[in-house]
C-alpha cells in the first residue's frame, strides 16, 4: 500500500491487548492505525483527523458501541465494522439497522477482519469514484420520495435536503438503479454491491434494505419503490 493510498483504521476497544494486536497486524500490512480505549477518545480522534474506517467494539464500559455508533451516524458516514461477542445476534442486528457496515465476532480472526475492512473500503472507493465518473445509468435516479445523484454519490429529499447514506447504502441503490425492473436475489445484491458473500441464515441484506426503505419510501412498511418478491428477492421498478 503506497503512501498516497495508505488508509487509516481507528480501533476503538477497551481491551488493550486486542488494540495492540490489531495495531501491529494492520501496521504490518500497510495501514495507519489509531487506537482509542473508549467512545470519547474515538470521537476526539475523528474530530482531529477522520479515519478511513472504524473498528468499534459493542461492549465497552461507559458509552457502549451501539450508542457511539448512533451518535457517530448523526453527522458522519465513516464506514464502521462492529466487533461483537459470538452469539450476540440481537446486537449485530441493531448495529446493522443503525448503519454499521459490517460485523466480526470475537475472538477476532485477523484475516477475516482484514477482508471485511478491505471490502468496506472498496465500497467507499466506488462511492468516491462516482464523483468523477458516471455510473452506467448516469445522472440522477428517482427513488420513491428521493432522488439519487449517481455522479455525486448522494441522496436528496424532495425539498433538496441531502439525506445521509453510507457507502454500502449508496452501492445498493446504485445496483438497483443499474438493474431497474429486474428481480435481484441476496447473492446478486451482495456481490454487485461489493459486500461479503452471503452466508447461510445471514439476513443482513434484509436489514440494509429495511433501513433504506425508511429513507426513500413514502410508506416504509408498505414499500412501492423497492419491493419484495417473495421467495426470489427484491425489485426496483
UniProtKB/TrEMBL annotation:
| Keyword Transcription regulation annotated | yes
**Keyword match Transcription regulation:** yes
Q: Which Pfam families match?
A: Response_reg, Trans_reg_C
- Annotation: DNA-binding region: 138-237
> Which residue positions does 4-aspartylphosphate occur at?
57
Q: Name one GO molecular function term.
A: phosphorelay response regulator activity
Chief place of localization: cytoplasm
A single GO CC term for this protein reads:
cytosol
Domain named Response regulatory: residues: 8-121
Q: Which UniProt keywords apply?
A: Cytoplasm, DNA-binding, Phosphoprotein, Transcription, Transcription regulation, Two-component regulatory system
List the InterPro entries hit by this protein, alphabetically. CheY-like_superfamily, OmpR/PhoB-type_DNA-bd, Sig_transdc_resp-reg_C-effctor, Sig_transdc_resp-reg_receiver, WalR-like, WH-like_DNA-bd_sf
Q: Which domain of life is it from?
A: Bacteria
What are the OmpR/PhoB-type domain coordinates in residue numbering? Answer: 138-237
Tell me the SUPFAM superfamilies matching this sequence.
C-terminal effector domain of the bipartite response regulators, CheY-like
Which BP terms in the Gene Ontology apply to this protein? regulation of DNA-templated transcription
User: Where is it localised?
Assistant: Cytoplasm
PANTHER family assigned = DNA-BINDING DUAL TRANSCRIPTIONAL REGULATOR OMPR (PTHR48111:SF4), REGULATOR OF RPOS (PTHR48111)
Its name, as the record gives it, is Regulatory protein VirG
